[in-house]
């Protein structure tokens, strides 16, 4: 059943809005009207008439696992709004952090895709009513034409504190507040950027939420078991490495310095934290061990660190984040060899800290301490 509500001059079918945006205030209240908590959700799902909700939720989790497109529920009753919560329930019951990352990523992408088809007032309403953000339209094209040239392509403006809720988790330079125009606390923003912030927030909300899941009835347990069986073939668990003396000895000078500074509780810059966390994850440290490295930081906040490390970790596992290379680290004043405060002959033969690490680890495993072979086997790549 669908009613329409008016947002500005736009009529939106509420049920469609609920199904597209499960984080919206409309979706949450519709869902709570049917099932006020996890236990009542499970009870409702036990009713044979709602078996399609479980079926579609399982498909939704499966799509997340395969990292394919999440579709709008087909269920033609008001229970359709429960498909998302049931999919979340299944993932929380399984308790695999990588599956949760996949779910957060695919749900976020689905939201981004739907947002790209919405009219401006719908997007503003979602920001305000569902995320509590203060966002305003920057006016029509003709109104914006009167603005300074630099501001004309920005369709919206958002309060900087709301911008900062999500933007720091994006690693492109353009998201850094220092690279944005700031006017009395407002950040001008393009439509595609606002969509990205919203979907980024959706990802955060999933990653940060937890559910106390009681014992599940048969039909849900079977769905959980089917997904679990798929996980073993789809998600290859990385063999965690143990941080031994050999491992840290193989760190290049840049990582070694950041690692030691972090353990000693020195405040690392954002770039240094990202470089160190992505490096440690890439060589196979667990999320928990990486968080342990940052624990001594004066501004350490458990949940935020957990979120940031998991975020980097999920991307490192796929095609996303790899640690920055030597050139980038040098540009960010994070290469002690470039700054002449440390030296290592291997640094002139590599372009990436990971290449340094792999070579040095191999040397350690073979007991090689004479580094003269670099000059015979490798071409110099950097003039340090
Ligand atoms: S040259 Fe590369 S690997 Fe060596 S310390 Fe500098 S950034 Fe690290």
Helix- and strand-based class?
Answer: mainly alpha
Number of domains: 3
CA-atom Rg in angstroms: 24 Å
Present as ligands are: iron/sulfur cluster
DSSP helix count?
19
Distance between the termini: 68 Å
Largest sheet geometry: 3 strands, antiparallel
Written overview of the protein:
With 384 residues, the protein is mainly alpha-helical. The longest helix is centred in the first third of the chain and has 19 residues, at 97-115. It is built from 19 helices and five strands. It has a three-stranded antiparallel beta sheet with strand order 3-4-5. A two-stranded antiparallel sheet has the order 1-2. Bound molecules: iron/sulfur cluster. Iron/sulfur cluster binds at residues 252-254, 326, 329, 335-338, 347, 350, 353, 356.
Secondary-structure map with pairings?
Blueprint: E1 4-7, E2 10-13, H1 14-20, H2 25-34, H3 38-46, H4 51-66, H5 82-94, H6 97-115, H7 120-131, E3 135-137, H8 141-144, E4 156-159, H9 160-166, E5 186-189, H10 191-208, H11 218-234, H12 245-249, H13 253-263, H14 270-282, H15 287-294, H16 302-317, H17 326-331, H18 353-366, H19 373-377
Antiparallel strand pairs: 1-2, 3-4, 4-5
Helix pairs in contact: 1-2, 3-5, 4-5, 4-6, 4-11, 5-11, 6-10, 7-10, 14-15, 14-16, 15-16
Bound molecules: iron/sulfur cluster (SF4).
What's a concise summary of this model?
With 384 residues, the protein is mainly alpha-helical.
Salient structural properties:
binds iron/sulfur cluster; two-stranded antiparallel sheet; 55% helix; 384 residues; 3 domains; 19 helices; three-stranded antiparallel beta sheet; mainly alpha; 5 strands; globular
């Amino acid at each position: 059943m669908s009613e329409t509500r008016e947002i500005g001059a736009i009529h939106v079918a509420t049920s469609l809005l609920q199904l597209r945006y499960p984080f919206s205030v409309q979706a949450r209240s519709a869902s709570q009207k049917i099932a006020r908590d996890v236990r009542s959700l499970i009870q409702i799902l036990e009713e044979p008439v709602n078996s399609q909700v479980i079926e579609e939720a399982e498909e939704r989790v499966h799509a997340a696992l395969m990292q394919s497109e999440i579709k709008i529920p087909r269920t033609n009753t008001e229970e359709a709004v429960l498909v998302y919560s049931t999919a979340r329930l299944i993932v929380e019951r399984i308790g695999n952090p990588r599956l949760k990352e996949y779910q957060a990523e695919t749900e976020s992408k689905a939201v981004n895709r739907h947002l790209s088809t919405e009219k401006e007032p719908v997007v503003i309403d979602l920001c305000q009513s569902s995320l509590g953000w203060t966002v305003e339209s920057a006016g029509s094209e003709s109104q914006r034409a009167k603005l300074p040239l630099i501001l004309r392509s920005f369709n919206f403006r958002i309060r900087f504190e709301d911008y900062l809720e999500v933007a720091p988790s994006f690693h492109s330079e353009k998201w850094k507040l220092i690279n944005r125009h700031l006017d009395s606390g407002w950040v001008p923003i393009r439509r595609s950027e606002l969509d990205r912030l919203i979907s980024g927030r959706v990802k955060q909300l999933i990653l940060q939420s937890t559910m106390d899941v009681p014992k599940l009835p048969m039909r849900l347990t079977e769905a959980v078991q089917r997904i679990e069986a798929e996980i073993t073939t789809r998600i290859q668990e990385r063999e965690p490495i143990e941080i031994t003396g050999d491992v840290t000895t193989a760190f290049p000078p840049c990582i070694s310095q950041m690692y030691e500074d972090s353990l000693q509780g020195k405040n690392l810059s954002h770039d240094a934290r990202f470089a160190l966390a992505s490096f440690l994850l890439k060589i196979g440290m667990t999320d928990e061990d990486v968080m342990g490295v940052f624990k001594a930081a004066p501004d350490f906040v458990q949940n935020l660190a957990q979120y940031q490390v998991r975020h980097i970790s999920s991307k490192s596992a796929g095609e996303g984040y790899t640690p920055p290379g030597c050139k980038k680290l040098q540009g960010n004043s994070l290469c002690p060899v470039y700054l002449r405060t440390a030296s290592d002959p291997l640094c002139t033969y590599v372009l990436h800290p990971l290449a340094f690490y792999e070579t040095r680890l191999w040397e350690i495993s073979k007991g090689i301490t004479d580094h003269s072979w670099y000059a015979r086997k490798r071409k110099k790549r950097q003039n340090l």
